[in-house]
Amino acid sequence: EPAKTAALAKSNVVDIASFGEDGYIKLISGLNAPGNPSNAAIEYAVSGFSAYATQTANEDMRKMCVAAYIKVLPKLADKKNQAFIISQFDLVGKDDAVAGIQGYLADNELADVTVRALVKINTQASKMALLNALPKADGQAKISIIEGLGDAHFKPAAAAIGRLATGTDAKVVR
Fold first, then answer.
1. Least confident of 29-38, 90-99, 118-127, 145-154
2. Alpha-carbon distance values, 8 to 13, 64, 98 (Å)
3. Given 3-state DSSP classes, what are the helix, strand and coil percentages for the chain, each rounded to the nearest 5?
4. CB atoms closer than 10 angstroms to residue 35
5. pTM for the complete prediction?
6. How many other β-carbons are positioned within 10 Å of the β-carbon of residue 145?
7. Most exposed among 140, 159, 171, 174, judged by the fewest C-beta atoms under 10 Å?
């Protein structure tokens, strides 16, 4: 059975790759409200394609994923579906993904998954996106960004975090 499943997965990846970016966006755009049974198949296909695209010699597929995910995010009405797509940047994200997802750091419902993606990307640009979002963030978004900067061990953030730790925001002060 595993060989049959692996062969099917490879076949699905080849099918998705043949769609091209626009076809892939159309597939992802089929995500409905969470809990809809049709979402499982789309989520499975997206997760599998993201994983395959990160393997060596698949840089064009990785770039296609990044471009498609950035373009489809604003088209998805549901936050859970947006969070699922943002989580794909944990796998496929590099500097080319940072500009496309950093705006979600201001969204209290999407900040945590966005922070995790940026920490996984782990480049100067992704860490600067976190630091630059910090002064504008509030609530849960601010806490997620502070935790992400700590997880990223980004030394330039120490002063900004230190100021917040001695400030007046009860949720941030330790």
1. 29-38
2. 9, 21, 32
3. 75, 0, 25
4. 8
5. 0.87
6. 30
7. 174
